[in-house]
Design a protein that fits this description.
28% of the residues lie in helices and 21% in strands. The chain is of the alpha/beta class and 412 residues long. The termini are close together. The structure holds zinc ion (ZN) (2 copies).
């Protein structure tokens, strides 16, 4: 009698991850309950049909990206859900700002938790480098078998030491490595956050006016990168209330910048300000006021200004419009530019004659790093997930077992 591994979703796609590990005595762990990236806004009923919801299970969320946690509201109410303590806060902020507060609560671990028991399983969360803050690999022991799930990861400096440490001293005797493969099939080099900090500093130095930047407020590494480049070039970074809220919730006890740091201001716009007041978060707004500026103050400044579609209207109303002296940088995956939600900010700046730049680096490991990781861990079997090029690119990973979604595999 051994563990049974079932990838309910993720063997053929990036995102929507949902993996089950079943113990011979009937206990089950579910690793991630992700929303498929191509799911239409507002769609429900998206849990994989093969996931049996009539029996108990415990859910572990690897990191706070929606393609890993976005279906938690659909899980049976009796199933406990675990995640990192900062992840739990970042997941909650998404619900709060969209005015759809999460009904589910989380049990949490933190980066110093060490192994803990869930029924007959022992779970060890291992902090990793990824574009999400508080991202973990998950080591699962049960029935004498051992699985390591990478979640999403990269090895891009600043936090790459976390991954290097795992590679230097990998957990022994791994039976199955469940690894992501997002970047397989692309051969473009993956830049480090330090390299793009340098590119940002160059852009800030050569631009006469303001630099508008679009990035995800939840990508804290990127916020840090942009903040450092702004500071180096004597500019102030102007973030929105949402990003300030994210930093406020997770930065305590870390070196992560937050309201009150030099060269950092929070733009209090009408739209977001109203949204926070309607959620009775006046206390938060009050606390930020000493570090806040109105959108009007961006006019005539040389600030680095966060920009997304939702802010354009409030900026325009305050007289803030891009000019040919300004620049714009899109700092997210280029594929998002096919969506109006993301392209509108770029087009708004392009129409004004601003320089358009693209400084970004992936949140995922390069193909070489993915292979080096699998080689270092030396599992008996590699099970590919979270990728679309696995059929062509599975060489260099050792013994790969290609599963279909919902196909059970006995861990031998
Ligand atoms: Zn993902
Ligand atoms: Zn991710």
């Amino acid at each position: 009698m051994t563990l049974t591994l079932t990838v309910h979703r993720g063997t053929q796609q990036i995102g929507g991850s949902c993996i089950e590990i079943a113990h011979p005595d009937g206990d089950r762990l579910i690793l991630d309950a992700g929303r498929p990236l191509d799911a239409p806004e507002g769609a429900t009923g998206l849990l994989p049909a093969s996931l049996d919801r009539t029996r108990p299970a415990t859910v572990l969320i690897s990191h706070p990206h929606q393609d890993h946690w976005g279906l938690v509201e659909e899980l049976p109410l009796t199933w406990p859900i675990w995640t990192g303590s900062a992840s739990a806060k970042l997941i909650a902020v998404t619900g709060d700002v969209t005015r759809r507060p999460l009904a589910r609560t989380f049990e949490t671990w933190d980066s110093r938790s060490g192994p803990f028991a869930i029924g007959p399983f022992t779970v060890t969360p291992i902090l990793t480098d990824h574009s999400a803050f508080d991202a973990y690999m998950l080591l699962v022991d049960g029935a004498g078998k051992r699985l390591l799930y990478t979640g999403d990861f990269r090895r891009h400096r600043r936090k790459s030491a976390l991954v290097d440490r795992i590679m230097a001293q990998p957990p022994a005797d791994i039976d199955v490595l469940l690894t992501e493969g997002t970047n397989l099939g692309s051969d473009k080099p993956v830049k480090t956050e330090d390299e793009i900090e340098h590119e940002f500093a160059e852009l800030f130095a050569r631009t006469k006016g303001r630099v508008f930047v679009s990035w995800s407020g939840q990508n804290i590494d990127r916020t840090v990168t942009i903040y450092r480049a702004a500071k180096r070039t004597g500019r102030t970074l102007a973030i929105d209330l949402y990003t300030a809220d994210v930093l406020d919730r997770i930065s305590e006890g870390t070196g992560v910048p937050r309201a009150g740091f030099p060269n950092l201001k929070v733009v209090v716009t009408r739209g977001l300000g109203g949204s926070y007041r309607s959620q009775s978060r006046e206390d938060f707004i009050e606390r930020l006021v000493p570090h806040g500026i109105s959108a009007k103050r961006l006019e005539g400044s040389r600030d680095v200004v966060m920009l997304r579609r939702g802010l354009i209207h409030d900026y325009q109303r305050a007289g803030v419009v891009p000019t040919a002296d300004d620049a714009f940088n899109f700092s997210m995956w280029r594929g998002y530019l096919s969506e109006p939600y993301h392209s509108e900010a770029l087009e708004w700046c392009r129409a004004a004659g601003a320089e358009i730049a693209y400084i970004h680096t992936s949140g995922h490991a390069s193909p070489a790093d993915l292979r080096a990781f699998a080689t270092a861990v030396r599992p008996k079997t590699v099970v590919p997930v979270h990728g679309v090029k696995w059929d062509e690119e599975s060489h260099g990973f050792g013994a790969v077992r290609r599963l279909a979604d919902a196909e059970p595999m006995a861990v031998l």
